[in-house]
Amino acid sequence: PLLLAGILVSALLNLIVIFVSIVSAYLFGLGVLHGTKGSFFASFTEFASVPDFVTSELKACAFGLTAVLIAAYKGLNTRRGPTGVGEAVNQSVVITGIILFGINLVITEIFFAVVPQRTF
What pTM value is reported for the model? Predict the structure, then answer.
C-alpha cells in the first residue's frame, strides 16, 4: 500500500503542477504580455504535445517509486534511536536526489530517442 500510495500521490501532484503551470502561463500571457487567447492556444498546441505529458507522468511515477523504496529501506534499517532516524532521513533525501537525477537523465534520453523532435 505504501508503494502504490507513493506512486499515486506523485502522479497526482504532477497533474496539479501541470494544471497550475498552464493556468499561470495563460494568465501571464494575457495579463502581462497583453496577448490574445487565440495566440496562447495556438502556440500552446504547437509546442506542447501528448508525449510530453505522458513522459511527465511516467517520470513522476518513477520518482515516487524510487523515493518510497529508498525511504522505506533506510527507515526499516535504522539503528541508534532518534539520532539514527535523523541520519536515515538525511541519507534517504541525499540518495534519492542523486538517483532521481540519473533516472531523469535516462528517461529523457529514451524520450528523445523515441519521439522525434520537431524543428521550427
Answer: 0.83
